[in-house]
């Protein structure tokens, strides 16, 4: 019974694929239209990433990003995950952590200032997120990196 159902589903899938492919071919330039749509999606994702990086120090809301790229917020979230493999929140967090690591290594800013500079107004929350993503607290991360640099001098 399962084999029959699977075979039936596969047949339906092939028919839909053939029908869709025929419809695209009938329109003419099907491959070009597909490539054009992919370029538009890539451009939207690039614009969204640019907006995120430009506003990394602020509270960032998906609705604001969606307005910037002229898309519905729900659609943008699906498209972003499809194209990047990350949710928008995961991407924002990853970029904030990258910037925080750079600031911890390259500056002597107090950790609360680093937190502010990467968009976390709450020191405790920043420490929690940093530790979750990096595996150690910001102070320990800084201390370890600074010690490693001094050993090579």
The overall average pLDDT, rounded, is 82
Number of helical regions:
8
Shape: elongated
Tell me how many strands there are: 0
Write the H/E string, N to C: HHHHHHHH
Please state the structural category.
mainly alpha
What proportion of the residues form beta strands (DSSP E)?
under 5%
Describe the fold and architecture.
- This protein has helices at about 1-25, 30-55, 60-70, 75-85, 90-105, 110-115, 125-135, 140-150.
- With about 150 residues, it is mostly helical.
- The longest helix has 26 residues, at about 1-25.
- The radius of gyration is 23 Å and the shape is elongated.
- The N and C termini lie far apart (about 70 Å).
Features:
mainly alpha; 80% helix; 153 residues; disordered N terminus
SSE layout and pairings?
Elements: H1 2-27, H2 30-54, H3 62-69, H4 73-84, H5 88-106, H6 111-117, H7 123-134, H8 138-151
Helix pairs in contact: 2-3, 5-7, 5-8
How would you summarize what this structure contains?
The chain is an all-alpha fold. Helices cover about 80% and strands about 0% of the residues.
